[in-house]
Amino acid sequence: MRGIAISPSNQCCSSGSSSPLQFQSQNTLPSQPYRTVNLNPLLQFNNKKKQNPSNGRRYPIVSKISINPSNNNNTQTPIRPLVVFGSANADIYLEINRLPKVGETISANSGQTLAGGKGANQAACGGRLSYPTYFLGQPDGQNSIIIVGGANMNCWPHTLSDQDFEVVRNAGIVLLQREIPDSVNIQVAKAARSTGVPVILDAGGMDAPFPQELLSFIDILSPNESELGRLTGMATESFEQITQAVVKCHKMGVKQVLVKLGAKGSALFVEGEEPIKQPIISATKVLDTTGAGDTFTAAFAVALVEGKSRNECLKFAAAAASLCVQVKGAIPSMPDRKSVFDLLQSH
Fold it and tell me: Which of 232, 233, 261, 265 is nearest to 246 (CA)?
């Protein structure tokens, strides 16, 4: 694997280059057909000893910060990283005035290719929020468009390596999505469960039935309304219908369900407890909602692993998503930690 550092300024540049989205490689790990990416310079690899950061069990020292500034005690505590297994795509972004009609050809006002993929989006968000983050994904194969699986679906090994499992076992929290094979997600979720590492599964990705085995090894399932409807085969238009669909998820073995409700906010359902609702934090402008759900899920994971309450996690995630929709593109729109706290102070 190769370690790749991405700076909190959202610029990932090669040495001696000012061009964004060119990675700075650090040849620190054995060559593998897939890649571990360090998305925060708080957590650096040891070049001299060629050491996997998980093997030495040396974790970064960061401050625990409360959403409420009055509660901040700036205590220095070693915490384990956020580990993301997932997809990395090239997003083709076209700006048009309207959708074409059947049989019609129209011209786009502009177009660009931006980094994306649910896994890469969520990992980038963790890094932008100044939390030590690792991303494991597939670098080989052709770019995927409109989730044409490509390398994300076809280039994973049949069985993950011991090195990968060690990274998972030493994580603080693990994020998964369904833009990579279910077999990979199951292996990762099992490894995490074996050492008590919580797992959040974003339901976005392939439109196929969820393996029961996968649902049995996750701690939190995070669908949006339509994904929840496809999973359960139930209507999800009203909050009452969503609640009933979540009950079916509980019966499938998922104890916690974090539902993203778009303009209606979000809700966390914990089996046996009343749901916790979180309204949106209104954005001053909405330019692009791409990546907003990934930002929400990743920000929730960061807040959760930092020890915040469920209500605080939801509010932190809502603030991050609000900032995300005000910038075009997925990864370019991920907010930094200071911006999220500044927005929370005004709400």
Answer: 232
